[in-house]
Amino acid sequence: MKEIKRIGVLTSGGDAPGMNAAIRAVARTASYYNIDCLGVRRGYNGLINGDVTELDARSVNGIISSGGTILYTARCPEFLTEEGMKKAVCTCRYLGIDGIIAIGGDGTFRGAKDLAEQGIPTIGVPATIDNDIASTHYSIGFDTACNTALDAIDKLRDTMQSHQRCSVVEVMGRHAGHLALYVGIACGAQAILVPEKTLDFDKDVIEKIRDGIINKRSHYIIIVAEGVGNAIEVAERVASQTGIDTRITILGHIQRGGTPTARDRVMASRMGEFAVRTLLEGKTNRVVCSVNSELIDIDIAEALAMKKNLHEKMYETSKIMAV
Ligand code: ADP
Q1: Ligand 1, residues 12, 129, 131, 285: which to mutate, most atoms within 8 A of Cβ?
Q2: Both 76 and 200 in a single domain?
Q3: Are residues 167 and 242 in the same domain?
Q4: 7 CA to middle of ligand 1, Å?
């Protein structure tokens, strides 16, 4: 086993609040163990092009509270090619990078696995606002994204209540409804549309609103995960079938930004530190996972093969709360 003297850290794929806190944790842990740390810019592109910057304990001052990522993030189609992978491995050898910490989602981990297979020790750290990585109960960014959405919906509620309207709010989540479900429960939505569940629209949405009208409810909130379909169509159906004045809000990229919450900062600090220690223990091709609040490392291929279901009990709770 080669001694680790210098590591690289990169952020890749979709950005998530708390990525900076994770970069800081990696740089500080490297400094603690007296190893060099290089920040690799624009995800795997930086590995291909040798676009790196030195990170020491002080160069990450003040970033724990900032959203986005100081290393930038990007998709990198070239990394999927044999040529691109060769260049990335060459850069690692040339710069003396003995291990890589890759912060991102499932796509980033697929890249990390490929890199590990080429002999570069690699550890993945989960960061995605969708919280859709099956091997870990929690991914960095989810809590901040939920709170950002909630903050916006609380403001919407004030105006919906004043006018006795229905608000259809589209939140992110192309393939997973975890964010929609969490936000929906937290804002007291009458209905939550997620890709994992098929709703009986007439029974689960329209009838509920009609009941609300009879019971003199002042306003309605419907949460739609972007993967389910179109918030505009949902709103049109609600308006035409109930007569309620309906408004649409698509929260979009606002959910990716902002100051990370305490939960995301702490999780990023713990996961970043754990990832460096995992590398130093001589491990490779592992992903850091939070399981029942403890951190463990799992083989990346095993992690990628897992499937994450929607939290059934939480979904039941959402229905009971919307009675
Ligand atoms: P996320 O990490 O948020 O899921 P992406 O799916 O866009 O984001 O993946 C980020 C990057 O990871 C891609 O641009 C590519 O460079 C790399 N990547 C994704 N899938 C693979 C793969 N199958 N093999 C190698 N690299 C991959």
Answers
A1: 12
A2: no
A3: yes
A4: 20
Domain boundaries, position 106 = 6-141+260-305
Residue 212 is predicted with a pLDDT of 86
Of 130, 132, 143, 297, the active-site residue reads 130
| AA identity, residue 223 | I
Length of the chain: 323
Q: How far apart are CA 263 and CA 141, in angstroms?
A: 9
Cβ of 128 less than 6 Å from ligand 1:
yes
- Residues 77 and 137 both lie in one domain: yes
Write out pLDDT tens, residues 71-117: 999 999 999 999 999 999 999 999 999 999 999 999 999 999 999 99
Whether 76 lines ligand 1, by a CB cut-off of 6 Å, is yes
Does residue 1 carry a pLDDT above 80? no
Q: At what angle do helices 231-242 and 207-214 cross, to 10 degrees?
A: 50
* Tens digits of residue pLDDT in 51-82: 999 999 999 999 999 999 999 999 999 999 99
Return the pLDDT at 323.
84
Return the H-helix or E-strand segment holding 276: helix 262-280
Distance 145 CA to ligand 1 centre (A): 21
Q: Does residue 80's CB lie within 6 angstroms of at least one atom of ligand 1?
A: yes
| pLDDT beyond 90 at 213 | no
User: What is the H or E stretch that residue 220 is in?
Assistant: strand 220-225
Known active-site residue 151: no
SS3 label, residue 148: helix
Ligand 1 near 16 CB (within 6 A): no
> What does the pLDDT read at residue 26?
98
